[in-house]
Design a protein that fits this description.
By secondary structure, this protein is of the alpha+beta class. Helix content is 68%, strand content 8%. The protein has a 4-stranded antiparallel sheet. Helix 5 packs parallel to helix 8. The relative contact order is 0.17.
C-alpha cells in the first residue's frame, strides 16, 4: 500500500481545487485585514487611554475687552498652589501662547493670528490614574480666584471614543468568526464532493484493508497543499495592501507597527491552513463512518 506521503487518489481531475484555492486565499486575506483592523483599533484605544486618562485642562478664558490674560501673576501662582495641594497630582504647568498656538494651528490653515490675540490662560494638569479628583471641589476653590474657570476632563472625551472603538473591535471579531465558519463550511462541502468523485477508489482501498484514518489522512495532506497555495495568495495580497497603505500615508515601511502587521499576515493564513486540515480530515472520517 502507498505511504501516506503519496496520494492514492487522482486529485488532479478535481475541477474544484482552483476554486477552493481562490476562495481560501480571498477568505484568508479578508480575515487578515479584519485582524489587522482589530489590532489597529486596540492600539489606538490603548494610546488614547494612556494619553487622556489622568489629564485635566484648567481654562481661564480671555476677557471680551481684549485683555491678553485674565489672571495676574499672583493669581496664576495661586492656581498652581491650589492644584498642587490636591492629593495625586503629579505636575501642573501653565501653557505658553506658543504651545496653545501649536494646538489650534491645524484648524487655522493660512489664517494669520494678530499679535494682540487674547489667548486664554491654560493649565495642563497630570495626576495619578489611581486617584479620583473631586472636580466640583476643585472648581469651587478655583472660582474664588476667578469665576470664569473651566475644567476639562479628558477622560470624558475618551469614554465616548472607547465605546466606539470597542464596538468596532467587536464587529471585526464577529466578522472573523463568520469567515472562519465560512471556511469550515466550504471545506466540508468541497470534501464531500471530492469524496463522491473518488468513491470508487475509496471502496477499492477499503476492500484491500485501508482504514478510514489512512484515507482521511490523504485528504488532509491534499487540502494542506491547497490551503498552502491559498495562504501564499493571501500573504501576497496582504503584503501589497500594507505597502500601499504605508506609501499613501507616507510612513516608514520598515517600522515596528508594520512588523506586527506582517506577523499577522503570516499567522492568520497559517492558522486557517491548520483549520482546513483538521476540518477536511474530520469530514472525511465522518462521511466514511456513515457509509460504513
Amino acid at each position: 500500500m502507498a505511504s501516506s506521503s503519496k496520494y492514492d487518489f487522482n486529485f488532479n481531475k478535481d475541477t474544484s481545487r482552483i476554486f477552493l484555492i481562490m476562495v481560501l486565499g480571498f477568505l484568508m486575506y479578508c480575515m487578515t485585514i479584519t485582524v489587522m483592523s482589530g489590532v489597529f483599533t486596540y492600539r489606538q484605544t490603548s494610546d488614547w487611554k494612556s494619553a487622556l486618562y489622568g489629564k485635566l485642562t484648567i481654562e481661564f478664558p480671555s476677557n471680551i475687552d481684549g485683555v491678553k490674560e485674565t489672571l495676574t501673576e499672583k493669581q496664576q501662582n495661586e492656581v498652581m498652589n491650589v492644584v498642587q495641594s490636591i492629593p495625586g497630582v503629579i505636575y501642573v504647568r501653565k501653557l505658553k501662547d506658543a504651545d496653545i498656538l501649536k494646538v489650534i494651528e491645524p484648524w487655522l490653515s493660512s489664517t494669520a493670528i494678530p499679535d494682540d490675540f487674547p489667548f486664554p490662560v491654560l493649565f495642563d494638569v497630570s495626576f495619578s490614574k489611581d486617584v479620583s479628583v473631586d472636580l466640583l471641589n476643585l472648581t469651587s476653590k478655583l472660582s474664588v480666584i476667578s469665576s470664569s474657570v473651566r475644567i476639562h476632563n479628558h477622560a470624558n472625551w475618551y469614554t465616548s471614543i472607547e465605546k466606539i472603538c470597542l464596538g468596532l473591535f467587536g464587529f471585526s471579531m464577529l466578522l472573523l468568526i463568520l469567515m472562519l465558519m465560512t471556511v469550515c463550511s466550504t471545506t466540508i462541502f468541497i470534501t464531500k464532493k471530492t469524496l463522491q468523485v473518488h468513491k470508487d477508489v475509496v471502496k477499492n482501498l477499503q476492500l484491500i484493508g485501508a482504514k478510514n484514518s489512512y484515507i482521511s489522512s490523504q485528504f488532509r495532506w491534499y487540502y494542506f497543499g491547497l490551503g498552502l497555495k491559498g495562504a501564499l495568495l493571501s500573504m501576497f495580497l496582504s503584503g501589497a495592501s500594507i505597502c500601499s497603505i504605508t506609501y499613501f500615508m507616507k510612513a516608514e515601511l520598515l517600522s515596528y507597527v508594520n512588523l506586527q502587521y506582517a506577523l499577522v499576515c503570516i499567522a492568520v493564513p497559517f492558522l486557517v491552513v491548520l483549520l482546513v486540515m483538521i476540518t477536511s480530515r474530520s469530514s472525511v472520517a465522518y462521511f466514511l463512518s456513515r457509509e460504513g
